[in-house]
UniProtKB/TrEMBL annotation:
Protein name: T-box domain-containing protein
GO process terms (BP): cell fate specification; positive regulation of DNA-templated transcription
InterPro entries according to UniProt: p53-like_TF_DNA-bd_sf, T-box_DNA-bd, T-box_sf, TF_T-box, TF_T-box_CS
Organism expressing this protein natively: Ursus americanus
Entry GO CC: chromatin; nucleus
GO molecular function, one term: RNA polymerase II cis-regulatory region sequence-specific DNA binding
Compartment(s) where it occurs, according to its Swiss-Prot or TrEMBL record: Nucleus
PROSITE patterns: TBOX_2, TBOX_3
């Protein structure tokens, strides 16, 4: 996943369908992105693999992306697909735009949080997500990604440029080059998003599943 100093949108973006909410309660939906481990990685070109390169960099300030449709009723959330396509990633630790701050060459896991209004008093873009019975957290192992400032794999580069609606400039400038690369394997995609569903069980932790991904 590309990160930049100015901030870059996640691509593919995450979208979730939520069920099991109280239609009359008010909820916030939020996302944070946490390290998978305490390692830093490097890409080994001759074997096309990611390898551990050492210990992770120092932790970055916590950031939470609060979905712009928050605060909304359970009925409203359940009638729509919740998209995080406006969330941006940055490697600028001094960022003041509300972007999620991450280190390059590290592995991360996005987490989706469903937060009932009466448990949201400590909810802030610059604080860890509050905990309690009114907060449900979901993650999908398939959405783990490695952060980079430039793609390390030519196939991934071409795949993302072809599918990313914000990469028109790259597509236009690279058409002739793409015609020369007929041997590159390009998996077919039916979507440019990571889609999943989550069921918020008021008596338990809830369940979730990824529908499809890259």
């Amino acid at each position: 996943m590309i990160i930049t100093k100015a901030g870059r949108r996640m691509f593919p973006a995450m979208r979730v369908k939520i069920t099991g909410l109280d239609p009359h309660q008010q909820y916030y939906i939020a996302m944070d992105i946490v390290p998978v481990d305490n390692k830093r990685y490097r890409y080994v070109y001759h074997s096309s693999k990611w390898m551990v390169a050492g210990n992770a960099d120092s932790p970055v300030p916590p950031r939470v992306y609060i979905h712009p449709d928050s605060l909304a009723s359970g009925d409203t959330w359940m009638r729509q697909v919740v998209s995080f396509d406006k969330l941006k990633l940055t490697n600028n630790e001094l960022d003041d735009q509300g972007h999620i701050i991450l280190h390059s060459m590290h592995k991360y896991q996005p987490r989706v949080h469903v937060i009932r209004k009466d448990f949201s008093s400590d909810l802030s873009p610059t604080k860890p997500v509050p905990v309690g019975d009114g907060v449900k957290t979901f993650n999908f192992p398939e959405t783990v990604f490695t952060t980079v400032t430039a793609y390390q794999n030519q196939q991934i580069t071409r795949l993302k440029i072809d599918r990313n609606p914000f990469a028109k400039g790259f597509r236009d400038s690279g058409r002739n080059r793409a015609k020369m690369n007929h041997s590159i394997y390009m998996p077919s995609l039916s979507t440019s998003t990571l889609e999943g569903w989550i069921n918020v069980d008021p008596l338990g932790a809830g369940t979730g599943a990824l529908v499809f991904s890259l």
